[in-house]
Amino acid sequence: MQNLQNYKRIIFVLGPPGAGKTYLCKRAAKELGGVQHLPMNDLLRREAARPLSPWAKDINSKLSTGRAVSSEATTPILKDFFDRNSFAKSKILLDDFPRNLDQVCRFEDEFGIAAAVIQLTGKREIMEKRLAALGKSDEEVQIARTRYQGYINETLPTIEYLRGVVSKVPADTDQDEVFKLFQTAVSVGRPPMPRESQQLT
Hints:
- Helices cover 51% and strands 13% of the residues.
- The chain is α/β, with parallel strands linked by helices.
- Helix 4 (71-84) runs parallel beside helix 5.
């Protein structure tokens, strides 16, 4: 396996739809030194567009309905990407991954524990207002609602499992204020901690 050190610099960035994950990651990559943004959905779409991809059907079906793609697809897609790319000494903001326990457990089996997790938090009504302000179609709004329910049912238990390395950033205030907090979380990070004794509640 090439570029093993890549995996030790990954920061998972998680939060509900409308929290601003992609905006914050892109801004951090632009304004902070030694930070790169890796949007998981872009990797998935790229894989789905690849001729003869064994996961194209699963990816297209899940993305079109707002559900999480299976770990049988996400793990090898990430491995292939990191084996083909080097990020020098950059921190890698892995945007919107992992979305469930299966994804993170398969990730850890393959790569080890991520360096840190940033959880964006905020009230649902504010997140929905942001999405509405973007002029989303009815179909996109429904997908966002499905994703929000998935966040509650699947991603929050995943964050609880990862709690030893989680930094929470309130994301329902002014964007510049949110970015300051996000920037601090990226810069400081959290050292990996053993979780053998942690149990889901």
